[in-house]
Hints:
372 residues, alpha/beta, FAD/NAD(P)-binding domain, eight-stranded mixed beta sheet, 25% strand, globular, FAD-dep_OxRdtase, oxidoreductase, Glycine oxidase ThiO, Gly_oxidase_ThiO, thiamine biosynthesis
Amino acid sequence: MNDFLIVGGGVIGMMMARTLSDSGADVTIVDKRELGQESTWAGGGIVSPLYPWRYRPEITALAEWSQGYYPELAEELLQETGIDPEFRAGGMLMLRVHDEDDALAWAEKYNQPLTRVDADFIYKTEPGVAPGKEQAIWMPEIGSIRNPRLGQSLKRSLELRSNIRIIENVEIKGIREMDGYAIGVETANSVLSAGRVIVTSGAWSAGVLKDVLPDIPIQPVRGQMLVYKAEPGLVDRVVMLDGRYVIPRNDGHILVGSTLEYSSFDKQTTDEARESLMASARDILPALADLEPEYHWCGLRPGSPDGIPFIGEIPTMKKLYINAGHFRNGLVLAPAATQLLCNQLLGQEPVIDPGPYRPEHRMSEAEAGQMI
């Protein structure tokens, strides 16, 4: 029997498996697909919440801890696996921000490097941006990571560890329980046993827990994106305008995102979203009007009512844990969310206060109607 069984092989599940295995534990990670093929693959890879001052302090605490972790992690994974997650530390330029005063007040409160910049700065920094932009918010320390390659490198890192067992393309039917304790999970053909079970299934987490915690408010939220192939250097950093963004890759690919759609588990792309994303791309970088998107796809975020994840032991069953509900910020918050739950599992001092993320606290907020 394994020490830990992780249900869900996205970035959070893989980071947790890696951290727990490094403690000497035996870990099994199981996914209904191949590891890293859902929202971990589909997202954009910006290592910051979009417009971070608009989030509650609980998100800021996780994001602040996580952001400094990615450069080190990317280098470590490259050396370990030979797969480069391509962390880019170019900064983030947010055009035409209407709540600048709120942004500046947040930056002062949390000691964040955020400044108001003018047109001269904008066009010296990103000459390809559409003309006529008079003001922006600049966050110089924000970077991005190539999330599909991050997923590949994390998976390879797990494969190199002898105390990790990877099970792919196996769907979980439910939690196996005895005397109020989780003892494993049931699949269509077998039972996987473990001392403790951790659900990191993203948008599918509520389904995995349906018989244990049926009212947990995690639901799928579709996000559609495009990618263009341009010459490297057309844009060198993340640029945002009116809630949409472009993200450059080292080889000239430029991601454009994203939509926010409550459409259950429907993963079909739509012509309407394609046209809207293309218009946003042109509004930020007019040169993209001369190109056709290379690919259009979508993924499902694990939406929660206010974006604060559920992290901790499930109150209705011992030895059963969750780390899910990160909404649009799964990759951003993954290092801190991983470390916070691993601290609890390994009896360590938590890196941040775990109270606001505990499932019983989050569920009580929901029942009180406090989630927004």
